[in-house]
Design goal:
Elements: H1 3-7, E1 33-35, E2 38-40, E3 42-45, H2 49-53, E4 59-62, H3 70-79, E5 84-89, H4 96-108, E6 112-115, H5 121-130, E7 135-139, H6 146-152, E8 156-159, H7 165-175, E9 181-184, H8 189-198, E10 202-205, H9 210-223
Parallel strand pairs: 3-4, 3-10, 4-5, 5-6, 6-7, 7-8, 8-9, 9-10
Antiparallel strand pairs: 1-2
């Protein structure tokens, strides 16, 4: 038996949970980020409860284009059987409301909170002083003042710069070699590997939509008739 064969994990699938969303295998090559004793390598970017319950990601990152609401946080945390990182600020959600939402997310069981632009450093500092769980700050541009973000209380950086993501990660790594970085890795093994090589510790994966998965499944059923 070879060395690789001894490390291969046994696979157990149920009859009804055999059809799940699997994150790309390349993500396994990143270092991961250890949070409260749990190593996180892959994060599924979704607020779809059915998707959250049927995936093999290490964690969920739940950010949505509306004002964060405690009831949504509660449903997401209760639905997941893995850690959840909830969006609590950004866009029109600013000021004291972000701090209150972050505290509520911690009380409801979230493993961390995510703040997006244009959350100010003052609000970020207020969140950091209020909660004990990690504060993840989304970075979308290479021109952001990362030093100020870290000084204000960013625990982890979430790089989501589209086609510039790898460039942004490399720029951050030159100045801050030890800051934990989560990053979007694209939809291919190649781009994910390149993102990890640039310095990302964990990767967010955006799954296909429920509609597209259902379409593929129905096509399969129709072909079997």
């Amino acid at each position: 038996m070879s060395k690789n064969e001894t490390k291969r994990a046994p696979v157990i699938n149920g009859t009804f949970r055999n059809h799940i969303v699997k994150v790309p295998e390349a993500i396994e090559n990143c270092s991961g980020i250890e949070i409260f004793g749990k190593k996180i390598k892959s994060l599924l970017f979704s607020t779809d409860v059915a998707m959250i319950r049927n995936c093999n990601a290490d964690a969920i990152i739940a950010i949505y284009p509306f004002t964060p609401q405690p009831i949504i946080t509660q449903v997401l945390v209760m639905s997941a059987d893995v850690p959840v990182f909830c969006g609590v600020g950004g866009g029109i959600t600013q000021g004291k409301r972000v701090i209150n939402l972050a505290m509520d997310a911690e009380f409801k069981g979230a493993m961390g909170v995510v703040v997006n632009a244009p959350t100010s450093n003052e609000v970020l500092a207020g969140v950091r002083k209020t909660i004990d769980i990690p504060v993840i700050v989304t970075v979308i541009s290479e021109y952001e003042d990362i030093a100020k973000r870290i000084e204000a209380g960013a625990t982890i950086l979430n790089v989501s710069g589209g086609k510039n993501t790898i460039k942004i990660i490399k720029a951050i790594r030159e100045k801050f070699p030890d800051i934990p970085i989560i990053a979007t890795g694209g939809d291919s093994e190649k781009t994910i590997s390149e993102t990890i090589e640039a310095g990302a510790n964990a990767i967010t994966y955006t799954p296909p939509t429920s509609a597209s998965l259902m379409h593929s499944l129905m096509e399969k059923y129709r072909a079997s008739w």
